[in-house]
Amino acid sequence: MTVGASENAHIYRLTGLYRALSEMNQAINRMGGEEELFPLACRSAVDFAGISMAWIGVYDPESKRIVPVESYGAETDYPESLNTSVQPGTSAPPTLQQPLIATITP
Question: Where are the domains of the chain?
């Protein structure tokens, strides 16, 4: 069976994503806090997963927004320009460039 170029590219991309995830899992276990973890998570996403830019934001209850706290890669000023309000009816229609917002609880 011969693997074509598109299949090779797909395998390469999945391998990079897996490596980035593995790096982040190891970092969670060995790092003391967000100050160390967030930069590594962004770097891992860019360096290993082939993503052009990664950013992490935290929820600010006063402004009801996701506030960028770390970014790495191309256009690192981009997260500052996003409307990351989490109030109903205040955000723009979803686009491919909007952030993925996940809640992590201990």
Answer: 5-81
